[in-house]
Write a structure and sequence with these properties.
With 258 residues, the protein is mostly helical. The protein is built from 7 helices and no strands. It has a domain of 149 residues: Four Helix Bundle (Hemerythrin (Met), subunit A) (Up-down Bundle).
Protein backbone atom coordinates (compact mmCIF):
# COMPACT_ATOMS: atom_id res chain seq x y z
CA UNK A 1 0.00 0.00 0.00
CA UNK A 2 2.82 2.39 0.84
CA UNK A 3 4.50 1.63 -2.47
CA UNK A 4 1.30 2.44 -4.32
CA UNK A 5 1.04 5.78 -2.52
CA UNK A 6 4.64 6.70 -3.34
CA UNK A 7 4.26 5.73 -7.02
CA UNK A 8 1.07 7.75 -7.22
CA UNK A 9 2.77 10.78 -5.68
CA UNK A 10 5.71 10.64 -8.08
CA UNK A 11 3.47 10.29 -11.11
CA UNK A 12 1.21 13.10 -9.96
CA UNK A 13 4.17 15.40 -9.30
CA UNK A 14 5.50 14.88 -12.83
CA UNK A 15 2.18 15.71 -14.53
CA UNK A 16 1.39 19.25 -15.64
CA UNK A 17 -1.71 21.16 -14.66
CA UNK A 18 -4.43 20.79 -17.29
CA UNK A 19 -7.47 18.84 -18.20
CA UNK A 20 -7.17 15.12 -18.76
CA UNK A 21 -8.02 14.14 -22.28
CA UNK A 22 -10.65 11.43 -22.44
CA UNK A 23 -9.76 8.18 -24.14
CA UNK A 24 -11.29 7.56 -27.60
CA UNK A 25 -14.52 5.58 -27.60
CA UNK A 26 -14.12 2.15 -29.26
CA UNK A 27 -16.50 1.14 -32.06
CA UNK A 28 -19.76 -0.54 -31.15
CA UNK A 29 -18.56 -3.84 -32.57
CA UNK A 30 -15.56 -3.86 -30.25
CA UNK A 31 -17.37 -2.59 -27.14
CA UNK A 32 -16.87 -4.75 -24.08
CA UNK A 33 -19.43 -5.16 -21.30
CA UNK A 34 -18.89 -2.69 -18.49
CA UNK A 35 -18.25 -4.41 -15.20
CA UNK A 36 -17.18 -1.56 -12.92
CA UNK A 37 -17.06 2.20 -13.14
CA UNK A 38 -13.68 3.63 -12.16
CA UNK A 39 -13.36 7.38 -11.67
CA UNK A 40 -10.64 9.22 -13.54
CA UNK A 41 -7.74 10.23 -11.31
CA UNK A 42 -7.26 13.96 -11.47
CA UNK A 43 -3.67 15.12 -11.94
CA UNK A 44 -1.96 16.69 -8.95
CA UNK A 45 -0.16 20.00 -8.90
CA UNK A 46 2.47 20.43 -11.56
CA UNK A 47 6.08 19.95 -10.63
CA UNK A 48 7.54 23.44 -10.09
CA UNK A 49 10.16 24.63 -12.50
CA UNK A 50 12.93 27.17 -11.82
CA UNK A 51 11.63 30.66 -12.42
CA UNK A 52 13.03 31.82 -15.74
CA UNK A 53 14.70 35.18 -15.17
CA UNK A 54 13.92 35.12 -11.44
CA UNK A 55 16.23 36.45 -8.77
CA UNK A 56 19.48 34.54 -8.82
CA UNK A 57 18.42 32.16 -11.60
CA UNK A 58 21.18 31.19 -14.00
CA UNK A 59 21.27 28.92 -17.00
CA UNK A 60 23.85 26.10 -16.87
CA UNK A 61 25.99 27.97 -19.39
CA UNK A 62 25.86 31.09 -17.22
CA UNK A 63 26.89 29.07 -14.16
CA UNK A 64 29.88 27.69 -16.03
CA UNK A 65 30.82 31.20 -17.12
CA UNK A 66 30.70 32.41 -13.51
CA UNK A 67 32.83 29.47 -12.38
CA UNK A 68 35.35 30.23 -15.12
CA UNK A 69 35.69 33.74 -13.70
CA UNK A 70 36.27 32.18 -10.28
CA UNK A 71 39.04 30.08 -11.79
CA UNK A 72 40.64 33.20 -13.28
CA UNK A 73 40.53 34.89 -9.88
CA UNK A 74 42.15 31.82 -8.30
CA UNK A 75 44.89 31.83 -10.92
CA UNK A 76 45.58 35.51 -10.30
CA UNK A 77 45.79 35.05 -6.53
CA UNK A 78 48.10 32.05 -6.78
CA UNK A 79 50.31 33.99 -9.19
CA UNK A 80 50.53 36.91 -6.75
CA UNK A 81 51.43 34.58 -3.90
CA UNK A 82 54.60 33.54 -5.74
CA UNK A 83 55.86 37.14 -5.54
CA UNK A 84 55.61 37.40 -1.74
CA UNK A 85 59.04 37.19 -0.08
CA UNK A 86 58.60 37.22 3.72
CA UNK A 87 62.25 36.21 4.23
CA UNK A 88 63.26 39.71 3.14
CA UNK A 89 61.07 41.44 5.70
CA UNK A 90 62.48 42.89 8.88
CA UNK A 91 60.45 40.83 11.32
CA UNK A 92 61.02 38.75 14.39
CA UNK A 93 61.24 35.04 13.78
CA UNK A 94 57.94 34.43 15.57
CA UNK A 95 56.09 36.99 13.41
CA UNK A 96 57.69 35.66 10.22
CA UNK A 97 56.71 32.07 11.07
CA UNK A 98 53.17 33.22 11.80
CA UNK A 99 52.89 34.92 8.41
CA UNK A 100 54.29 31.87 6.66
CA UNK A 101 51.64 29.78 8.37
CA UNK A 102 49.02 32.20 7.09
CA UNK A 103 50.35 31.75 3.56
CA UNK A 104 50.26 27.95 3.84
CA UNK A 105 46.69 28.05 5.14
CA UNK A 106 45.66 30.37 2.32
CA UNK A 107 47.19 28.04 -0.28
CA UNK A 108 45.36 25.06 1.25
CA UNK A 109 42.06 26.96 1.19
CA UNK A 110 42.65 27.93 -2.43
CA UNK A 111 43.17 24.26 -3.30
CA UNK A 112 39.94 23.34 -1.49
CA UNK A 113 38.08 26.07 -3.37
CA UNK A 114 39.34 24.77 -6.69
CA UNK A 115 38.17 21.26 -5.79
CA UNK A 116 34.60 22.38 -5.04
CA UNK A 117 34.59 24.72 -8.05
CA UNK A 118 35.62 21.89 -10.36
CA UNK A 119 32.90 19.59 -9.02
CA UNK A 120 30.24 22.29 -9.35
CA UNK A 121 31.37 22.94 -12.90
CA UNK A 122 30.51 19.32 -13.70
CA UNK A 123 27.15 19.46 -11.87
CA UNK A 124 25.99 23.10 -11.98
CA UNK A 125 22.49 22.30 -10.66
CA UNK A 126 23.71 20.68 -7.42
CA UNK A 127 22.82 22.82 -4.39
CA UNK A 128 25.26 21.03 -2.07
CA UNK A 129 28.25 21.67 -4.34
CA UNK A 130 27.16 25.29 -4.81
CA UNK A 131 26.99 25.73 -1.04
CA UNK A 132 30.43 24.19 -0.48
CA UNK A 133 31.99 26.37 -3.21
CA UNK A 134 30.33 29.44 -1.71
CA UNK A 135 31.62 28.53 1.77
CA UNK A 136 35.15 27.89 0.42
CA UNK A 137 35.21 31.34 -1.15
CA UNK A 138 34.12 32.84 2.16
CA UNK A 139 36.98 31.04 3.93
CA UNK A 140 39.57 32.41 1.48
CA UNK A 141 38.57 36.07 1.68
CA UNK A 142 39.60 36.91 5.30
CA UNK A 143 43.12 35.47 4.99
CA UNK A 144 43.54 37.01 1.57
CA UNK A 145 42.73 40.40 3.08
CA UNK A 146 45.26 39.80 5.87
CA UNK A 147 47.96 38.93 3.33
CA UNK A 148 47.14 42.05 1.30
CA UNK A 149 47.54 44.29 4.35
CA UNK A 150 50.81 42.66 5.38
CA UNK A 151 52.26 42.91 1.87
CA UNK A 152 51.23 46.56 1.61
CA UNK A 153 52.91 47.35 4.92
CA UNK A 154 56.03 45.20 4.70
CA UNK A 155 56.91 44.74 1.04
CA UNK A 156 55.20 46.66 -1.75
CA UNK A 157 52.10 48.83 -1.77
CA UNK A 158 51.47 48.10 -5.45
CA UNK A 159 51.58 44.35 -4.86
CA UNK A 160 49.27 44.73 -1.90
CA UNK A 161 46.81 46.68 -4.04
CA UNK A 162 46.78 43.83 -6.56
CA UNK A 163 45.94 41.39 -3.77
CA UNK A 164 43.08 43.67 -2.68
CA UNK A 165 41.77 43.92 -6.24
CA UNK A 166 41.79 40.13 -6.65
CA UNK A 167 40.00 39.79 -3.31
CA UNK A 168 37.30 42.26 -4.36
CA UNK A 169 36.75 40.36 -7.58
CA UNK A 170 36.43 37.08 -5.70
CA UNK A 171 33.98 38.69 -3.28
CA UNK A 172 31.74 39.88 -6.15
CA UNK A 173 31.77 36.38 -7.65
CA UNK A 174 30.83 34.92 -4.28
CA UNK A 175 27.81 37.24 -4.11
CA UNK A 176 26.63 36.06 -7.53
CA UNK A 177 27.10 32.43 -6.56
CA UNK A 178 25.16 33.07 -3.35
CA UNK A 179 22.16 34.40 -5.31
CA UNK A 180 22.25 31.31 -7.52
CA UNK A 181 22.45 29.08 -4.46
CA UNK A 182 19.35 30.77 -3.04
CA UNK A 183 17.47 30.07 -6.28
CA UNK A 184 18.45 26.38 -6.12
CA UNK A 185 17.30 26.03 -2.51
CA UNK A 186 14.04 27.85 -3.23
CA UNK A 187 13.32 25.51 -6.15
CA UNK A 188 14.05 22.39 -4.08
CA UNK A 189 11.73 23.66 -1.34
CA UNK A 190 8.94 24.08 -3.90
CA UNK A 191 9.52 20.54 -5.18
CA UNK A 192 9.31 19.20 -1.63
CA UNK A 193 6.05 21.00 -0.93
CA UNK A 194 4.52 19.79 -4.20
CA UNK A 195 5.58 16.20 -3.50
CA UNK A 196 4.09 16.29 0.00
CA UNK A 197 0.80 17.63 -1.40
CA UNK A 198 0.70 14.95 -4.08
CA UNK A 199 1.47 12.24 -1.52
CA UNK A 200 -1.41 13.34 0.72
CA UNK A 201 -3.81 13.51 -2.24
CA UNK A 202 -2.81 10.04 -3.46
CA UNK A 203 -3.18 8.62 0.05
CA UNK A 204 -6.72 10.00 0.29
CA UNK A 205 -7.64 8.68 -3.17
CA UNK A 206 -6.24 5.24 -2.38
CA UNK A 207 -8.03 5.11 0.97
CA UNK A 208 -11.33 6.04 -0.71
CA UNK A 209 -10.80 3.42 -3.44
CA UNK A 210 -10.10 0.65 -0.89
CA UNK A 211 -13.04 1.56 1.33
CA UNK A 212 -15.26 -1.47 1.90
CA UNK A 213 -12.91 -3.91 0.18
CA UNK A 214 -11.07 -5.03 3.27
CA UNK A 215 -12.27 -8.29 4.87
CA UNK A 216 -13.94 -7.89 8.28
CA UNK A 217 -11.88 -8.75 11.31
CA UNK A 218 -12.32 -12.32 12.60
CA UNK A 219 -12.04 -13.15 16.29
CA UNK A 220 -9.27 -15.53 17.21
CA UNK A 221 -9.98 -18.77 18.99
CA UNK A 222 -9.32 -18.60 22.69
CA UNK A 223 -6.69 -21.23 23.51
CA UNK A 224 -4.85 -22.03 26.68
CA UNK A 225 -1.24 -20.88 26.40
CA UNK A 226 1.44 -23.51 26.83
CA UNK A 227 4.35 -22.09 28.81
CA UNK A 228 7.66 -23.85 28.31
CA UNK A 229 9.89 -21.75 30.43
CA UNK A 230 11.23 -24.56 32.70
CA UNK A 231 12.96 -27.74 31.68
CA UNK A 232 12.91 -31.14 33.35
CA UNK A 233 16.09 -30.49 35.30
CA UNK A 234 14.62 -27.38 36.90
CA UNK A 235 11.40 -29.26 37.64
CA UNK A 236 13.35 -32.03 39.41
CA UNK A 237 15.23 -29.44 41.39
CA UNK A 238 12.01 -27.78 42.42
CA UNK A 239 10.41 -31.15 43.26
CA UNK A 240 13.42 -32.16 45.33
CA UNK A 241 13.10 -29.17 47.62
CA UNK A 242 11.28 -29.89 50.91
CA UNK A 243 7.88 -28.41 51.34
CA UNK A 244 7.27 -25.42 53.57
CA UNK A 245 5.64 -27.56 56.26
CA UNK A 246 8.51 -30.03 56.22
CA UNK A 247 11.01 -27.22 56.70
CA UNK A 248 9.14 -25.65 59.60
CA UNK A 249 8.17 -28.91 61.41
CA UNK A 250 10.36 -29.51 64.49
CA UNK A 251 12.36 -32.71 64.55
CA UNK A 252 10.76 -35.68 66.41
CA UNK A 253 12.37 -36.84 69.67
CA UNK A 254 13.38 -40.51 69.82
CA UNK A 255 11.23 -42.62 72.16
CA UNK A 256 12.84 -43.46 75.52
CA UNK A 257 12.69 -46.88 77.12
CA UNK A 258 10.97 -47.19 80.44
Amino acid sequence: MLASILVCAVEAGAQRVGQVQSAPTPPASQATPQTETVGTVQPGPAKPQPAQGGEGYLEPAQVKELLHKVWLAEYRINDLLTEVRPERWKLADVARDSFRQTLETLRAQMAALEGWRSQLNGRPDNAYLAYMAHAAMGAVLPRLDAVARSVTQRENASLGAQFSQAGNQLFDLQQGLGLYLGALLRYQDQVLQATQGNLAACQNDLGYALRGRAAPARPLKNVLPNFRGRGRSSQRAVGALPSEKARTRPPTQPATKK
